[in-house]
Structure formats: structure tokens, C-alpha cells
Amino acid sequence: MPRYEILSQDAMATLDGAWRRLVTEIGVEFMSERALDLFRAAGQRVEDNTVFLDPEFVLAQVALAPKEFDVQARNPANTVHIGGDHMAFGAVYGPPFVREGDVRRDGTFADYQNFLRLSQSYAVLDSAGGVVCEPNDRPLDSRHLDMNLALMTLTDKIYMGNVVSGPNAADTIRMGEILFGGRAAIEKTPVSISLINCNSPLRWDDRMLDALFEYAAAAQPVVLTPFILMGAMSPVTIPAALTQQIAEALSGIALAQLIRPGTPVIFGSFLSNIDMQSGSPTFGTPESGIGLLCTGQIARHFGLPFRTGGGLTSSQVADAQAGYESLMTLLPTFLAGTNWVMHTAGWLEGGLVASFEKFVVDCQITEMLQHEFTPLEINEGSLGFDAHQEVGHGGHFLGSMHTLERFRTAFYRPFLSSSDNFERWTRGGALDTNARATNLWRAKLDAYEQPPLDDAIRAELEEFVTRRRIELGD
To answer: Which of 215, 220, 408, 444 is the most buried (most CB within 10 A)?
Structure first.
């Protein structure tokens, strides 16, 4: 479907001048000596940890990044293409808490595994993502090993790499080499996508940069993402936030290209606003939707694939607010043609919670939007002239041959919604959306079948995890 673009040429030109001024006059902080050395060697002015960037240098670096690329899955049928007219979807990322029905609690490794099984089971998702929830019952220093092993064995879709530290990133890369047959294989076609967040405003922190160095050196795609809540991490206006977002994303992309020219990158955006009365983050707002649409247009302006959007909400439970706020972000996600969608399914309570029920609701919304945004086929068969000849004036089409040939697939049937009349709905237990979602995710887990994996590869992965856990002191 056509992309929805709301910025005029004059507006784009104004934003272009604004980000150039920001990187030259204010500069961007990089809390890494390795990064600073690369910028110095490239002729950029460095004062303490701040790099004052020549905009033309930045654009030259950005031009080195591929406009589109593949990420291979261990099941080739699940390999994805990033960029162009393609959209790929991953589950929620990062929540420390989990909600199961009415219970809100710390996330566990069992929860993490179950979210991976659901991600594998729902075709609407191209990836489980990475940190679908934090497994708080596993040691902090080594839990990334357990998470990676689960991603690689419980799913056969693409996965996201760990970015807590450089060593964690190196472990993820090494496990990818085991899974896909060596360093050369993963450098030829990457196997993971990793999220590198900017500490907005205008600072790239050392841990994220250490992970960036590892992934870029291995030619693994990185999502360079400003984390902006307008009014807190950026000025309060949308144009100011967009300007800052461009400066931060492009500066990170420039560094990725200095580390390894041609590194696949994704122009990242996580843009919303705070409640100016309470200071709390808010999601599914009109401002976030506007920013999302603008981001797509901006990324295409620079010839880059981009990430933004998802099923975001501030609601504490999977209620009507969660539904309409998620649609307020998922619909512009589609209208913008987002290439890599994080937080597609399961996000609740401003990203603090991964919810099983919300996971199902979001998969339903996303599947409906995928159907809605599929181009319409208009041909002799779909025009149905023969049906008019058969039915004539004042008749009905229920029994026409045209209908009988197509009734099974003519209309999309939601898997979560209820269209029963009141009496039938009551006889079925009067289940609301949450109750139906609970039944669905539990049924999905019951029906889950682990995708096959070569025993020798599994054993090598497990041996690596065991050895590294001992080396890390756990």
C-alpha cells in the first residue's frame, strides 16, 4: 500500500537544516575512547567526549549503509528482508514484569520460554525479538546465555542480540556462529538484529557502544535508536524531537560505518511524550502517531530502513484503553510502512509489563492490519458479473455460484473476536476479550511443537553455555 507522508518539502528542508546545526554547534557525546579515536581519525572535532560532526561527513557515512538486506533464520522459510516495501514484526522487548490474567509479578525464565513458544506459534510475528521479558530468576551475569539458547532452540525465526555489554554481544555472535556454520556464514548473511539505544539527549553510553562495536565488526544489523519522550528527553515540540532524533540516529549510524563500512543499520525511533501533569510516559498519543509518520518519511529521505511503532499503551491491564492506544500506534506503523516493528505484541504498562493476554490481542490487531493493507485484487473474477447474471434483480447472493466458490476465504475471520448473538454468547460462558485471550494463549502452548534442530548443533550450543557460565562465575 502507498506510504502515508505528512511532511512538505519545505518542512523536510527545515528539519534538514536543524539537525545539521545540532551536530555542528551542540555536538553528540560518545562515552567510548574507541569511538572518539575513530572520529578523530576521520577528521571530526572532538572535545572531551563530545564530537562535533561535519554534516557532509555524516551523510557520506550514512551512504555506505545498505538500503535493504536479509536476516537469515535457521528455518529458511522464516528468513526476512529488511527495507524497501517489506515489514517484519517482533514481540515486546524489555519488560521486567509479567501479567498473567489478574496477576502481575516478576518475569521468570519459564515466562520467557512461554513467550518464545507463542512467538513461534503465531505466524503474524516474524521474530520473538530478544528480551521478551526479563528472566529475573536467572543470574544477571549469565542469563543472556540462557535467553540466547532458548531463542535458538524454541524458535526457528530470526532473533535479537543481547546488548547489555560487549562480552554479552560477543557471546551472542559466537552462538550465532555455532548455529549457522561459522563467522563467514553470518557475515555473508546476518542472523541477528540488535537494539543500540541512545541515552537521549545526545549521548551514546559506553555499554551500548561496546555492544555496537562487537555487532558492527561481525556485520550484524544494528538498530540505532534515540529514546525520546518529548518534554523529558527532548524539547517539548514535535519538530524539536524530530531534529534531535535525526541527529542522534545519524551520528550512531556514522559510527557503525566507521567500525565496519557497509554494516547493515536500521534508522531507529522510539518517540512519544510525557504527561505534562504527572511526568509519566504516555503511549498511543496523537503526538506519537504524528512522530511515527514523520519518522518513516525522514528515514526514506536518507535511504535507510527504519524501526518505529508497535502495540504501545500506558494501560495497566489489557482493557479498552490498551486496545485503542495500541491501535493508535499500530495503524500509523502500517501507514508509515515501518520495516522493523518491535513491541508488536505483549506490551503493557508503558513497557514495564509483558502480558500474555495483551500478546494475543496485539497479534489479532496486527493480523487484521496485515490483511487490510494487502493490495486489493481487481479482475474479472472478483468483479462478480456472473453472479449478477445468476441472481438478477431483487434476489440474494448467499447461494450463488460466485459465493459458494469463495465463501471460505471471502472475508477475514478474527480468531479472538466474538460475533455471536447475545444468547449464544451467554451459553458459551459470557467470555470477554481477556477471557477468550487467556484460553487462546493456553491452547497455543498446549499445541506448541518445538522446531527440529540438529543434535550436534544443540550439543555444541549447550556446551558453550555451560562453559561460559562457569567463566562468568555463575
So the answer is: 215
